[in-house]
Amino acid sequence: MVFKAAIAALAASAQLASAFEKPAAPAQGMRLIKSSEEDPGQWIFKEDKYTMVKSKRGRKHYIDITNIEDDFVLERLSAKNRVAAQKAIEYPDTLGHVDEAQSFISSAGTEGPQLGLKHLTSGTEAANRLFKKVQDLASANAAITVEQFPHSDFDQPSVLARIPGKSENLVIIGAHFDSAAGKPSAAAPGADDNATGMVVVLESFRVLAQGGFEPENTLEFHWYGGEEIGLVGSADVFAHYRAAGKTVLSYVNQDMAGYSPSGTPAIITDYTDSDLNAYVKLLVTEYTGQAPNEDACGYGCSDHASADANGFPAAFLFEDFTNQTSPYIHTVNDTLGTIMWDAVERHIQFSIGYLVEASYL
After folding, report:
1. Ranges assigned E (strand) in the chain
2. Active site members
3. Which of 144, 160, 253, 335 could cross-link 138 (Cys pair, CB 3.0–4.6 Å)?
4. C-alpha–C-alpha distance, residues 131 and 38, integer Å
């Protein structure tokens, strides 16, 4: 164990010794984006980021690193072979709380999520409506806290809810709630990307809050702003958690949960933690009745990349293979009528199972 720790320390120090250096900004008001490990960074104007949000075919992922100053994070974003996230626990290979989790799953459904998707909004209004909704649900348990997490570069605060446990160790599930369709003024209903992920997290929170669940580990439910413009919301949140020295046992991302022609979700295997992925596979198989597929989604494709970059173990359960996902995202056609509610239901079942089981890690 001592030898392994020494090797890990040497690897970490080697990373920091070759820290990523940001290029100088050519003008004020520009943003530094990074689209791969090899990319040294490109300065663009903020408005131009929206034109990089394309439809399914030809879309380009990137991470806005303008505000990231932590050498550890910058180096992980630039390393093909990153050191695995340091984990406080080992994930089990069996599940011990199936009956309890199933009792909560029996209280879940898609009626509330379907109603929620009928009232889609955007921008600051979306953040405020979501905050109010989460506060209303949290009123079932006086111990639950709900806060808005402000961001310096855009006016769409993230929303964080917390069900306290006996331990301060964190089990987190999250989804972004912003949407985009190519320019700031474009109509972007964002039903699948990502109102579905948002309501999966919301329904899981509702069931556990109203059901009076008392976790061993603390559960957090995150809804991020700014994902579509470079993961800036989740980057701020996880940078804060890293600086505060918080212990994150696991983070599971929910981004697009409502379009699955194959009927089987997929575990994303890149920029995620392999040990946590094995645990997620166990959970998906038990709580949805089928083993998930596996796929990769590329550099900076969603908010799990922010958790991973900050050294926290992350996983991402996606709606299907990436080449079978919704053809309507990032367009005006990403509407309620395209949603496959059986897919949303599978994600809700998994999410509740994950939160109950992982609360005992």
Report:
1. 30-34, 42-45, 63-64, 145-149, 158-163, 167-176, 217-224, 248-253, 266-268, 293-295, 314-318
2. 176, 193, 227-228, 255, 330
3. 144
4. 38
* Phi-psi category of residue 311: left, alpha or beta, with phi > 0 → left and psi -120 to 50 → alpha: left
Q: Which two tokens stand for residue 171?
A: 């089990």
CA distances (Å), origin 326, targets 190, 281, 295, 300: 11, 23, 15, 19
State the CB neighbour count (10 A cutoff) for residue 240: 12
Digit-coded pLDDT (tens) for 292-307: 999 999 999 999 999 9
Edge to edge, what strands does the sheet with 248-253 contain?
145-149, 158-163, 217-224, 167-176, 248-253, 314-318, 266-268, 293-295
- For residue 313, the tally of other CB atoms under 10 A from its CB is 26
Sheet holding 42-45, edge to edge: 42-45, 30-34, 63-64
Asked if 116 and 199 count as a contact pair (C-beta separation under 8 A), the reply is yes
Nearest to 78 by CA among 91, 68, 88: 68
Q: Is 102 helix (H, G, I), strand (E, B) or coil?
A: helix
Give residue-wise pLDDT tens across range 215-271: 999 999 999 999 999 999 999 999 999 999 999 999 999 999 999 999 999 999 999
Percent of the chain predicted with pLDDT > 70: 90
How many Cα atoms are found within 13 Å in the side-chain-facing hemisphere of 219?
27
* Structural domains of the chain, with CATH: 2-76 (no CATH), 98-358 (3.40.630.10)
Confidence of residue 9 (pLDDT cuts 50, 70, 90): very low
Residues 6+ away with beta carbon under 8 Å from 225:
127, 151, 154, 156, 157, 158, 176, 177, 178, 232, 233
Tokens of 20: 């990523």
Number of helices (H), then strands (E), in the chain: 11, 11
Per-residue pLDDT reduced to its tens digit, 62-112? 999 999 999 999 999 999 888 888 889 999 999 999 999 999 999 999 999
Distance separating alpha carbons of residues 142 and 114, to the nearest angstrom: 27
Q: Where are the alpha helices (DSSP H) in 32-157?
A: 46-51, 71-76, 98-105, 111-116, 123-138
